[in-house]
Amino acid sequence: MRTSRLSKEEALTFILTHIVVERSHSFELNQATLFTLMNLASEAENRLQQEDGLIPHEVIEAIAAPFIESE
Questions:
Q1: Side-chain half-sphere CA neighbours of 10 within 13 A
Q2: Which of 39, 48, 31, 50 is nearest to 12 (CA)?
Q3: Exposed, middle or buried: residue 45 (CB in 10 Å: 0-12, 13-18, 19+)?
Q4: pTM score, two decimals?
């Protein structure tokens, strides 16, 4: 098994930074949104672990886009 280039915690940090700072998108952080964000972080970690050559911030931006649009 490959070692992850990005931990779930790091992915969550990058997702929150992308959503709040880079996209200036605000949302209510409650149990449901935290659960969703943790799942997105897990998905980012898994994708980066499974495929070589992916750029972490591009993966995170793609994964976060549906969340931003739905909020």
A1: 10
A2: 39
A3: buried
A4: 0.88
Q: Which residues contact 14 (CB under 8 A, 6 or more apart)?
A: 6, 44, 56, 57, 60
Domain coordinates in residue numbering, the chain? 8-70
Phi-psi map region of 27: left, alpha, beta (phi>0 left; psi -120 to 50 alpha) = beta
- Per residue of the chain (71 residues), give pLDDT as tens: 456 678 999 999 999 999 999 999 999 999 999 999 999 999 999 999 999 899 999 999 999 999 999 98
Q: Which two tokens stand for residue 70?
A: 């739905």
Which residue's entry shows tokens 């993966």? 59
